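Key idea: predict the complex, not the pieces.
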Amino acid sequence: MRKTEDRIFHALMGLFSLITVLLLAFLIFFIFRESQTAIREVGLAELLTGDQWRPLIYKDAPSYGMRNMILSTLYVAALAVLFALVIGVGTALCLACAATDRQRTLVMPYIDLLASIPSVIYGFIGLYIVVKFFEKLGRATGESILAGGIVLSVMILPYMISSCCDTMVRIRSRYGDASAAMGVSKWYMAGQMVLPASVRGILISMALATGRAMGETMAVMMVMGNSIAFPKLLGKGETISALIAMEMGIAEVGSTHYSALYTAGLVLMVLLFAINIVFELLKKRLAKEGAV
Amino acid sequence: MSDAIIKLHDFGVAYDQKTVLSGVNTSIRSGRITAIIGPSGCGKSTMLKAMNRMLETQKDAAVFGSVLLNGVDIHTMEAEQLRRKVGMVFQTPTPFPMSVYKNMTYAPQYYGVTGKQELSRIVRENLEVTGLWEEVKDDLNKSALKLSGGQQQRLCIARALTAQPEVLLLDEPCSALDVKSTQVIEELLLKLKETYTIVIVTHNLFQARRIADDCIFMLNGELWEQNTTEELFANPQKKETRDYLQGVYA
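Result:
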């Protein structure tokens, strides 16, 4: 009896795993196939490097260059990760090395709660606080790459903090006593031991955060102004995800425009994949040098 | 008879209102190796950790009575100052996850040593004392985590010495090591007692006998008997001590 049950259970689990893997494979295949029309008609080079995205008409013919969107995506994600890195690593270090266990268990849930706020709320707050702030400073419009970076950094902060904090708490609980027994202060320990020893953990959290930052759509769309201009810190910009979200609904199924949007999705996927590989290589390199 | 460097007066410790150590009165004599022995859970480690106030890092530990270092109550001193004078080596080797060199300069840099030459001298001298210099001198930038267990523990001893302590506390430093490494460390401790006062907690009676000048036998959170190692092993005054030394209970 047991044996049959076990076998059924095994078969079911195998089936579900297979479905998950197939789902991913189909997803990639589908995006790849749908983007073929645009790649064939426009050409990959033009799609990637062209600076004009005029799906309806441009100089007698539509144009599908997504260079500015690719750069905007990278720009805003890099800004967000940079901001979040500084604040996140500092917060994590403080929580792991200076706060008591009680204080940490008190604060952590609130930080985690930040991650559960819907992104449209972040966009809304960003629009009324960050964008307004820039306008008060005298900019004609506050919607900008910088505003997007700031809003996005707050959104990825909880991931950054909790993953860095986990690593740092682990290091501190392992080496903290040995360090304290040498008569050095906890801040010295934080800066000279815990921080350098956490570099690998920090890289992992950066990889995760970059992934989230590049994929995030709603909040960024609301505060970045969505112009296809070349991205400048205080200028408007449009990310790939925002481009897809805004235009997919109006693109005619099967048209070049439709296919070009799929290409944009493909580019986003490849970018994320490439960035993850870079982080992975960095991690390996550090492991070779003997960090934890 | 050498002088007492550490004195405990009516010393006691309670965790979470449960007494684990009480009524301890003893002196640790300078320039000697004192072993603290006794069955597990008798308060050996607790007593050791009280001597450099590492108990404070454990929550809910309450301390009674006084501990004097060179006649000064250690609870009136800054914990950092005290720990600089009373170093500690733990049961499991804990080299920091950085290079051998950085492990060795960690404390001196905190104390304000900045000159490169001076730092190199401290690294070299202390590694030489522990016999590690010959083994690692060509690769000081190697991660300390890549050393063998015995080397790691010797590095930890060398690292503790970089703070130039007067007393070195060791909490079962060989329990995670093989016979050969244990032997190397024991020889090292015998050499070190010329410069430092050493207090070692050990569950290994043979080890206590091999290296210790004085021996403290603890039982049920009390200091049961204390004497020179020779006397204690040859002539235990109390029945429980004799039973323990003969292996009646462990």
